Amino acid sequence: MKNTFGSNIQYTLFGESxxxxxxxxxxxxxxxxxxxLDLMERQMEKRKAKGKISTQRKEADQVKIISGYFNGHxxxxxxxxxxxxxxxxxQDYARTQMLLRPSHADYSAHVKYRGFEDYRGxxxxxxxxxxxxxxxxxxxxxxxxxxxxxxxxxxEKLHDLEDVRFxxxxxxVETQIAYLQDRSFPTLDEICGKAMIExxxxxxxxxxxxxxxxESAAIHVPxxxxxxxxxxxxxxxxxLLFSIPAVKGVSFGSGFDFANLYGxxxxxxxxxxxxxxxxxxxxxxxxxxxxxxxxxxxxHTVIKATPSIYQEQDSVDLQSGKEAKLTIKGRHDPAIxxxxxxxxxxxxxIGLLEALCQQEAGMALIKQMSSNERxxxx
Length: 378
Hints:
The chain is α+β, with helices and mostly antiparallel strands. The protein contains nine helices and 18 strands. The strands form six sheets. Strands 1-2-3-7-4 form a five-stranded antiparallel β-sheet, with helices on one face. A hairpin with a 5-residue loop joins strand 2 and strand 3.
């Protein structure tokens, strides 16, 4: 039973929704990295609950770095991020603790942990645990930004409402990413964004929830990252993205639309642009053979409708062993797409940094071996 990701830089997630605190330990960060805490705060702000379209549980989400950081720089030892839970109402879950909430992890967690799991607010399975992921992701993002890498996510689809898509070229996507940086609600079309907000508010009034699709892009990612099979860029990013609560689908480039395309339509023809090799289209989402090709990494993430709804639902009572009716209490999101966008950005940043470290470690070994063969002192 583990909660750790990464080989080069390791991330260990800890805490529960209604525990004293949640957090993450980052092990393997080199010493001497200057951290932009303002960027971290801006990323955390994007994830916060706001207005009628989010849960009424308002958390300060003040990030405390309690180790591995000294005089404005990483110290090389494990960096520990702590975020205190300051606004919990555990009594909302006491009455129904033995009633299984549909589409939640209540039953699967009960079986795996033999009844010892923390059920309050979903415990360790809660979306609350994405807060430290955003904090950690902001550090990965800072490192990538020094290499020119930019990442952004918008709501591509909310139920039957569809936003403008990311473009095919680096220049188009660069402009769109810049636009998204200042958007409080992450859509490329402002009118569509307003319609989506109205849709979420309408669902809340009906005691229901709504899901959709997030579209992400990463530009200026170096070509050559990733491995052909088990550590392909798709494998690494999907591994991380599927760990986000409510994610039920991930696709790259044209994804499932490839089923409707002939090879002549799906292939990305190569061309030269200012002396660089590019592709004329980007159906493959910047990845060939599991390895980045220098074009924008383009992916889609399906987020299911929030399972916590206020309508009466069918359930099973674990204590009596009988079927029962469930009406939940507490504070819940009618949609999480707008809050999940920054979580997806964070996971992409963590995954790309992992692939970059793997590539750099390999290149450093090759350089050392080459130097030794030439009899050079290293």
